[in-house]
Write a structure and sequence with these properties.
single chain, 190 residues, alpha/beta, five-stranded mixed beta sheet, 17% helix, 15% strand, globular
Protein backbone atom coordinates (compact mmCIF):
# COMPACT_ATOMS: atom_id res chain seq x y z
CA UNK A 1 0.00 0.00 0.00
CA UNK A 2 1.89 3.01 -1.35
CA UNK A 3 5.18 1.31 -0.50
CA UNK A 4 8.51 2.50 -1.88
CA UNK A 5 9.56 -0.58 -3.86
CA UNK A 6 12.69 0.99 -5.36
CA UNK A 7 14.95 2.35 -2.59
CA UNK A 8 15.83 -1.00 -0.97
CA UNK A 9 14.56 -3.54 -3.46
CA UNK A 10 16.71 -6.66 -3.10
CA UNK A 11 14.74 -8.95 -5.45
CA UNK A 12 17.30 -8.84 -8.26
CA UNK A 13 20.12 -9.91 -5.95
CA UNK A 14 18.03 -12.55 -4.14
CA UNK A 15 15.27 -13.86 -6.39
CA UNK A 16 14.00 -16.36 -3.82
CA UNK A 17 11.33 -19.01 -4.24
CA UNK A 18 7.77 -18.64 -5.39
CA UNK A 19 5.21 -18.60 -2.58
CA UNK A 20 1.73 -17.48 -1.54
CA UNK A 21 1.76 -15.03 1.36
CA UNK A 22 -0.90 -16.62 3.52
CA UNK A 23 0.74 -15.93 6.90
CA UNK A 24 2.53 -12.97 8.47
CA UNK A 25 5.47 -12.67 10.83
CA UNK A 26 6.26 -9.35 12.55
CA UNK A 27 9.75 -8.26 13.61
CA UNK A 28 11.06 -5.16 15.36
CA UNK A 29 14.31 -3.75 13.99
CA UNK A 30 15.78 -2.58 17.32
CA UNK A 31 16.82 0.59 15.48
CA UNK A 32 15.55 4.12 14.94
CA UNK A 33 16.38 4.17 11.22
CA UNK A 34 16.31 2.09 8.07
CA UNK A 35 18.41 -1.08 8.44
CA UNK A 36 20.78 -2.08 5.63
CA UNK A 37 19.92 -5.80 5.95
CA UNK A 38 23.40 -6.79 4.74
CA UNK A 39 22.51 -5.69 1.23
CA UNK A 40 19.38 -7.83 1.32
CA UNK A 41 20.86 -11.00 2.84
CA UNK A 42 18.60 -10.68 5.91
CA UNK A 43 15.76 -8.52 4.59
CA UNK A 44 12.02 -9.01 5.19
CA UNK A 45 9.33 -8.28 2.61
CA UNK A 46 8.60 -4.83 4.04
CA UNK A 47 9.90 -2.37 6.60
CA UNK A 48 7.62 0.13 8.33
CA UNK A 49 9.11 3.44 9.54
CA UNK A 50 7.24 5.85 11.83
CA UNK A 51 6.73 9.40 10.53
CA UNK A 52 6.17 11.22 13.81
CA UNK A 53 5.63 14.63 12.25
CA UNK A 54 2.69 13.45 10.13
CA UNK A 55 1.64 10.59 12.44
CA UNK A 56 1.68 7.99 9.71
CA UNK A 57 3.98 5.24 8.48
CA UNK A 58 6.41 5.07 5.59
CA UNK A 59 6.71 1.63 4.00
CA UNK A 60 9.52 0.13 1.96
CA UNK A 61 9.03 -3.13 0.10
CA UNK A 62 12.17 -5.24 -0.34
CA UNK A 63 10.73 -8.35 -2.00
CA UNK A 64 7.44 -9.02 -3.83
CA UNK A 65 4.69 -10.78 -1.86
CA UNK A 66 4.88 -13.81 -4.16
CA UNK A 67 8.59 -14.50 -3.40
CA UNK A 68 10.15 -15.41 -0.06
CA UNK A 69 12.16 -12.97 2.01
CA UNK A 70 15.21 -13.68 4.18
CA UNK A 71 14.77 -12.28 7.71
CA UNK A 72 14.42 -15.55 9.64
CA UNK A 73 17.09 -18.01 10.64
CA UNK A 74 16.55 -21.24 8.70
CA UNK A 75 18.54 -24.29 9.78
CA UNK A 76 19.47 -27.03 7.35
CA UNK A 77 17.23 -30.05 7.84
CA UNK A 78 14.71 -28.16 9.98
CA UNK A 79 11.35 -26.65 9.15
CA UNK A 80 11.10 -24.06 6.40
CA UNK A 81 11.00 -20.65 8.03
CA UNK A 82 11.49 -18.09 5.26
CA UNK A 83 9.79 -20.08 2.52
CA UNK A 84 6.63 -21.44 4.13
CA UNK A 85 4.27 -18.75 2.76
CA UNK A 86 5.44 -16.29 5.43
CA UNK A 87 5.19 -12.57 4.62
CA UNK A 88 7.66 -10.80 6.90
CA UNK A 89 7.34 -7.23 8.15
CA UNK A 90 9.99 -5.34 10.12
CA UNK A 91 8.70 -2.49 12.26
CA UNK A 92 11.29 0.17 13.06
CA UNK A 93 11.60 0.52 16.82
CA UNK A 94 12.52 -1.54 19.87
CA UNK A 95 10.88 -4.08 22.16
CA UNK A 96 13.71 -3.84 24.72
CA UNK A 97 13.07 -1.55 27.72
CA UNK A 98 16.80 -0.94 28.41
CA UNK A 99 17.25 0.16 24.77
CA UNK A 100 14.25 2.48 25.12
CA UNK A 101 15.75 3.92 28.30
CA UNK A 102 19.16 4.39 26.64
CA UNK A 103 17.56 6.22 23.70
CA UNK A 104 15.59 8.46 26.07
CA UNK A 105 18.71 9.20 28.13
CA UNK A 106 20.52 10.15 24.91
CA UNK A 107 17.79 12.71 24.19
CA UNK A 108 15.92 10.80 21.50
CA UNK A 109 12.18 11.46 21.62
CA UNK A 110 10.84 10.09 18.36
CA UNK A 111 11.04 6.32 18.37
CA UNK A 112 8.65 3.42 18.80
CA UNK A 113 8.75 1.24 21.90
CA UNK A 114 6.64 -1.67 20.64
CA UNK A 115 4.56 -2.26 23.81
CA UNK A 116 3.56 1.43 23.75
CA UNK A 117 3.21 1.95 19.98
CA UNK A 118 0.78 4.78 19.19
CA UNK A 119 -2.54 4.04 17.50
CA UNK A 120 -1.49 5.72 14.22
CA UNK A 121 1.51 3.38 13.96
CA UNK A 122 -0.58 0.30 14.70
CA UNK A 123 -3.09 1.45 12.06
CA UNK A 124 -0.22 1.75 9.54
CA UNK A 125 0.80 -1.85 10.23
CA UNK A 126 -2.86 -2.94 10.02
CA UNK A 127 -3.17 -1.21 6.63
CA UNK A 128 -0.36 -3.43 5.32
CA UNK A 129 -2.21 -6.52 6.60
CA UNK A 130 -5.43 -5.39 4.93
CA UNK A 131 -3.52 -4.80 1.67
CA UNK A 132 -2.02 -8.30 1.89
CA UNK A 133 -5.48 -9.78 2.38
CA UNK A 134 -6.64 -8.09 -0.85
CA UNK A 135 -3.74 -9.76 -2.67
CA UNK A 136 -4.17 -13.14 -0.92
CA UNK A 137 -7.79 -13.51 0.29
CA UNK A 138 -6.95 -16.79 2.06
CA UNK A 139 -4.71 -14.87 4.49
CA UNK A 140 -6.55 -14.57 7.80
CA UNK A 141 -6.00 -11.40 9.83
CA UNK A 142 -5.99 -13.02 13.25
CA UNK A 143 -3.66 -13.93 16.08
CA UNK A 144 -1.81 -17.09 15.06
CA UNK A 145 0.26 -17.54 18.21
CA UNK A 146 -0.72 -20.79 19.96
CA UNK A 147 0.41 -19.61 23.43
CA UNK A 148 -0.06 -15.88 23.07
CA UNK A 149 2.43 -13.01 23.02
CA UNK A 150 4.76 -12.10 25.84
CA UNK A 151 6.76 -9.09 26.91
CA UNK A 152 10.43 -9.10 25.94
CA UNK A 153 12.79 -10.49 27.35
CA UNK A 154 10.51 -13.36 28.46
CA UNK A 155 10.01 -14.13 24.75
CA UNK A 156 13.72 -14.58 24.00
CA UNK A 157 15.35 -17.95 23.30
CA UNK A 158 13.51 -21.21 23.83
CA UNK A 159 10.55 -19.58 25.56
CA UNK A 160 7.06 -20.95 26.04
CA UNK A 161 5.95 -18.76 23.10
CA UNK A 162 8.24 -20.40 20.53
CA UNK A 163 6.38 -22.78 18.20
CA UNK A 164 7.32 -26.35 17.49
CA UNK A 165 7.98 -27.32 13.89
CA UNK A 166 4.53 -28.91 13.69
CA UNK A 167 2.80 -25.79 15.05
CA UNK A 168 4.76 -23.62 12.62
CA UNK A 169 3.69 -25.73 9.66
CA UNK A 170 0.01 -25.40 10.59
CA UNK A 171 -0.50 -21.90 12.01
CA UNK A 172 -2.69 -19.29 10.34
CA UNK A 173 -2.73 -15.55 10.87
CA UNK A 174 -0.09 -13.28 12.38
CA UNK A 175 2.81 -14.17 14.69
CA UNK A 176 6.07 -12.57 15.82
CA UNK A 177 9.73 -13.43 15.48
CA UNK A 178 9.45 -14.72 19.05
CA UNK A 179 7.22 -17.53 17.76
CA UNK A 180 9.42 -18.81 14.90
CA UNK A 181 11.18 -22.15 15.42
CA UNK A 182 14.95 -22.29 14.80
CA UNK A 183 15.16 -18.66 15.94
CA UNK A 184 16.03 -17.10 19.30
CA UNK A 185 14.90 -13.49 18.92
CA UNK A 186 12.13 -12.28 21.21
CA UNK A 187 10.73 -9.40 19.16
CA UNK A 188 8.38 -7.64 18.66
CA UNK A 189 6.92 -8.12 22.19
CA UNK A 190 3.27 -7.71 23.17
Amino acid sequence: PKADSKTQNFSKKYSGSSMKSTRVLLHSTETRGWPGYGGGASAPHMTIMPDFKNQKVIVRQHFPANRNSRALRNLSGGVETNTLNIFQIEMIGTCDAPTRDKWKKSGHKNFIFMPDAPDWYIKGVADVLVWLKTVYPEFEIRDGAPRGWGRYPSTYGNSKYRMSGSEWSKFKGVVGHSHAPENSHGDPSD
